[in-house]
Specification:
This protein has two domains: about 210 residues, no CATH class; about 140 residues, no CATH class. The chain is globular and about 65 Å long. With about 450 residues, the chain is α+β, with helices and mostly antiparallel strands. Strands 1, 4, 5, 6, 8, 9, 10, 11 and 12 form a nine-stranded mixed beta sheet that branches. Helix 4 packs parallel to helix 5 and helix 6 packs antiparallel against helix 7. About 40% of the residues are buried. The protein has 15 helices and 21 strands.
Length: about 450
C-alpha cells in the first residue's frame, strides 16, 4: 500500500472546531525498573483486544511480571465473577511495592516512536503520550469513528475500578500539517537514549520521558485548539468517561483537576509519514459454492467487472489494481470454487441512499459500505437466498490465499482501507464508520508506561 495516501489532503476544517479546547497534560508515569525485569520486551504486550488465548498464555510464560497479568488477566478455576480484576489490582500493587514498577519523579510527556517494516520499506510513526481531559463524545473536542460494544466497556470498567490506573493508551489523531506539536519534542530527544522494546511482530518501540516544563508548555499550547479523532481505544475512552461520571455522581471527585477526569492517550499527527492504515479484507463462509460467473452476473447492474485470472498471482494483481487506483469504489472478489479473481468498479451507487438512509453521502462512498450494503447484501447474497454469511477479517493477501487453499471460505473480498480524510470528515459529523473500516498498524504496546488515577 502507499503510505503517502494517508497524508491529509485538506487543511483543518474550521466548521468542526470543538467548542471545548483540548486539555492535554503531562503525568507522573509508573514504569518498569529494567534493573529488576531485564528486557522491556519481555514484560510488554499488544493491546488486550488483539490477544487470543494462545498469545495470552505465551505472555504469561514470557515473564512473571508481564503486563498481561494486569491488562488481560486469565481466569483461574473457582474464580468468583470479579476475581480476575482483583487479581490484576493485587499484581499492580505488589509490583509497585516491590519496586518492579517505579514512578517518575516529575510530570512528563512521553515521546513514543514505533519503527516497522511494511512491504519491504521501513517506517517510523512518531507521537507522544500524555493525558487528556475526557468529555462525552459530541460535547468536546474528541470524536469517535467506530461503534462500541457493551461487553468490552463493562470489562474495562471493572478493570479500571480495580486498578485505578490507565494500563494502556488510547490512540488519538490530530491535524497538524506543519508539525508544530512534535517539533519541540523532536528537538528535546536529540542525543537522549530511549528505553526500547521489540514486539512479536518485530516492531521496535522507543520511549523518551520529557520533563522539560518549557517543552511541555509549548506542546500544551499547540494542542489546545486541536480536535482529536480516536483511531483505536474507543471502548477505553468511553470507559474513562463512565468511570469519571460514576465518581462524580457519588461526589467522589476532588475537583476539575482530579486525575479521574483524564485518560492516557497517544497523540499522532494525521500528517505523520509513518501513519499507516492497512486494508481489512473479508472472507465469507456460509455461502454456496459460487463461481466467478455467478458473482459477475450478480454485480453487473451496478459494477463494471473484469476477470483477472486464477490463483494467488491473480489475487495479487487484483489487489495491485485496487491499490493503484486509490479510490473507494473498487473491490476485488475471489471465488474459491473455481479459484478465480474479479476486479469490480462501482458505476451506479444510487441504491445506497435507500440501503442506508440514515447515513451521509460520505459514508455511502466508503469501500466497506459499498462492499457490504451494495455488493454483498443487495446483489450477491440475493443470488444465494439460502446462505448464512459468516465473516472473517484479515489484513494480508497471504491470509486470503491460505483460507482459499483450505476452502474455509466461499468468497474472498478485497476492500480498500478508509483513509485519514474519511475518518476526519465522517467522525466530525458524529457518524460512526462501518465495522472494520480501519486498521491502524502497528498497535500501541501495553506496559511502556502507566497512568495512575489516584
Amino acid at each position: 500500500m502507499e503510505f503517502s495516501s494517508v497524508v491529509r489532503s485538506f487543511s483543518h476544517n474550521a466548521s468542526i472546531e470543538a467548542e471545548i479546547m483540548a486539555d492535554i497534560l503531562p503525568f507522573r508515569g509508573w514504569r518498569y525498573d529494567l534493573g529488576q525485569v531485564g528486557d522491556l520486551s519481555d514484560v510488554t504486550a499488544p493491546p488486550y483486544d488483539v490477544i487470543n488465548a494462545a498469545q495470552q498464555e505465551g505472555l504469561y510464560q514470557a515473564h512473571p511480571c508481564n503486563v498481561i497479568r494486569l491488562e488481560l488477566t486469565r481466569e483461574e478455576p473457582g474464580d468468583a465473577p470479579d476475581a480476575k480484576y482483583t487479581r490484576a489490582a493485587n499484581f499492580l500493587r505488589q509490583w509497585q511495592n516491590d519496586g518492579v514498577l517505579n514512578r517518575d519523579r516529575e510530570d512528563c510527556l512521553y515521546v513514543y516512536h514505533q519503527e516497522f517494516t511494511w512491504e519491504g520499506t521501513n517506517y517510523v510513526r512518531k507521537g507522544f503520550l500524555g493525558r487528556i481531559r475526557v468529555e462525552p463524545f459530541g460535547e468536546g473536542c474528541v470524536f469517535p469513528h467506530e461503534q462500541t460494544l457493551s461487553g468490552p466497556k463493562a470489562d474495562r470498567l471493572h478493570l479500571i475500578k480495580a486498578t485505578k490506573t490507565n494500563l494502556s493508551p488510547i490512540f488519538g489523531l490530530y491535524p497538524d500539517d506543519e508539525n508544530e506539536v512534535m517539533d519541540p519534542l523532536d528537538r528535546a530527544i536529540i542525543g537522549v537514549p530511549p528505553v526500547v522494546a521489540t514486539d512479536h511482530l518485530g516492531v521496535i518501540h522507543r520511549l523518551w520521558p520529557i520533563s522539560d516544563r518549557s517543552v511541555i508548555q509549548k506542546v500544551h499550547d499547540k494542542m489546545h485548539k486541536k480536535n482529536i479523532f480516536i483511531a483505536d481505544g474507543h471502548h477505553r475512552y468511553e470507559t474513562a468517561n463512565n468511570y469519571r461520571n460514576e465518581l462524580a455522581a457519588a461526589e467522589q471527585l476532588s475537583g476539575p483537576e482530579a486525575p479521574q477526569n483524564f485518560a492516557m492517550m497517544m497523540f499522532v499527527s494525521m500528517s505523520d509519514p509513518g501513519l499507516a492504515i492497512l486494508p481489512t479484507h473479508r472472507l465469507v463462509a456460509g455461502l454456496p459454492n459460487l463461481t466467478a460467473d455467478q458473482v459477475a452476473a450478480a454485480l453487473k447492474p451496478h459494477f463494471e467487472v473484469e476477470r483477472i485470472g486464477k490463483g494467488p498471482a491473480a489475487a495479487k494483481e487484483t489487489w495491485d489494481l485496487i491499490d493503484a487506483d486509490g479510490g473507494q469504489n473498487v473491490l476485488g472478489f475471489g471465488t474459491t470454487a473455481d479459484d478465480t479473481w474479479l476486479f469490480a468498479r462501482a458505476i451506479d451507487t444510487t441504491p445506497m441512499a435507500t440501503l442506508a438512509p440514515d447515513q451521509t453521502p460520505e459514508w455511502h462512498g466508503l469501500g466497506v459500505s459499498l462492499l457490504h450494503k451494495l455488493a454483498l447484501e443487495y446483489l450477491i447474497f440475493k443470488s444465494a437466498p439460502n446462505s448464512k454469511p459468516q465473516f472473517t477479517y484479515v489484513h494480508s493477501l497471504a491470509e486470503v490465499n491460505e483460507s482459499q487453499a483450505a476452502k474455509s471460505c466461499q468468497l474472498a473480498c478485497l476492500v480498500p482501507p478508509a483513509q485519514i480524510d474519511h475518518v476526519e470528515v465522517i467522525a466530525s459529523h458524529l457518524e460512526k464508520m462501518p465495522p472494520k473500516s480501519t486498521y491502524f498498524y502497528p498497535k500501541l504496546l501495553s506496559g511502556l508506561v502507566f497512568n495512575s488515577l489516584e
